[in-house]
Amino acid sequence: MAEQPPFDDRDGFIWKDGKMLPWRDAQVHVLTHALHYASSVFEGQRAYNGEIFKLNEHSERLRRSASLLGYELPWSVEEISAACRDVLAANNFTDAYMRPVAWRGAESIGVAPGNTKPHLAIASWEWGKYYDPRHAEAGLRLDIAPWRRPAPYTAPTQSKAAGLYMICTLSKQHAEQRGYNDALMFDWRGKVAEATGANVFFVRDGELHTPTPDCFLDGITRRTVMDLAKRRGIAVNQREIWPEELESFEQMFLTGTAVEITPVQSVGPWTFEVGEMSRQLAADYDDLVNGRIANA
Predict the structure, then answer these.
(1) How far is it, in rounded angstroms, from Cα 234 to Cα 229?
(2) Is 296 inside a domain boundary?
(3) What is the pTM of this model?
(4) Taking Cα atoms as reference points, which of 231, 272, 239 lies closest to residue 254?
(5) Which residues are catalytic?
(6) pLDDT, tens digit, 9 for 90 and up, residues 66-118
C-alpha cells in the first residue's frame, strides 16, 4: 500500500467558515484558543455511495457538543449538513470519511475564552477500514486501558470534545506498543465503558448487553446497531457491566462510525468467539449504510 501524504499537504478542498478553500490553505494560528485550552469539538462521519450516513444526527451533535463547551455555532444543522455535502462533491468522493471540527479562535488567549469567535471546518478523505481487515476478520485483541473515563461531574462527557480524547490517545498508544489492536476502557468506578474510539457490545444466550452511556458518548452507530438488533428480535440490555462479568460473555464487538462493526477475540485475559450474531449485525449494518435495506 502506497504511503499516504501528511494531512497538511494534500490536494483537494476544505470548507472553512463558509468558504471552500484549497486544502493547504485551511489553516489556523498557533495561538488559537482550542490549541491551548481544548475548546474544540468534532464529528466523524462516513459517506457510502455518495450519501453521508445519518448526516443530520452528526450535525446536531456537533452543535450540541459546542454548546456543552460554552459556545454556540452560528451555522444551523441544515447549513452544516449542506456544507458537508458540498465538501464531498468538491472532492469528487462517493465513499469517504468526513471530519467536521469546530473551535474557539485566536481573538484572545487565556483560560477564559474572552472574545474568541467560533470557527468551523469540514474536511473529507478516502479512508478504508479503521483496522487491518485481517485483524478484524479474526477479531481484535484489546488491552486494558491504563486510563479511565471520567465522571460526568468532572467533564462534559456527553460532548464529542477533543480534550476528552487525550486519554484515548494515550490508551491506544499504550495498547499498540504492547502488541494489541486497541484497548478497553473502564469508567471512574471501575465499570466497563468503551474502547478508545468505539462503543462495546457483548453477546450472551442470544441477547446483547452494552454499558449504559452515563459518562461516555451514546454513539450514533451504537443506537443504529440497537435498532438493527431489535428488528431481528434480539433483546438489548443496556446496563452496568463489571469486568468480572466479561468471562460469561460469548461474543464481543465494537461499534462506531470509523470502526463500523468489528468483532473482538480477546480483552486482556478474557476471550470471545467471532460468532454468528456479530457477523449478522455487521452484515445488516453494511446493508443499511449502503442502502440495501431501509434506514433504521
Answers:
(1) 5
(2) no
(3) 0.95
(4) 272
(5) 160
(6) 999 999 999 999 999 999 999 999 999 999 999 999 999 999 999 999 999 99
Grid coordinates of 52: 453521508
Same domain, 149 and 281: yes
- Number of folded domains in the chain? 2
Cell of 103: 473551535
CATH of the domain at 69: 3.30.470.10
| One domain for residues 71 and 110 | yes
Cα distances (angstroms) measured from residue 222 to each of 140, 158, 198:
18, 14, 9
* Alpha carbon distance 207, 211 (integer Å): 14
Which grid coordinates are listed for 190?
Answer: 471501575
Residue 193 domain-assigned (yes or no)? yes
**235-286 pLDDT, tens digit each:** 999 999 999 999 999 999 999 999 999 999 999 999 999 999 999 999 999 9
Using only the alpha carbons of the chain, give its radius of gyration: 19
Query: Per residue, what are the HEC states of 221-276?
Result: HHHHHHHHHHHCCCCEEEECCCHHHHHHCCEEEEEECCCEEEEEEEECCEECCCCH
Q: Which of 125, 144, 172 is the last residue of a domain?
A: 125
| Boundary-marking domain end, from 106, 125, 144 | 125
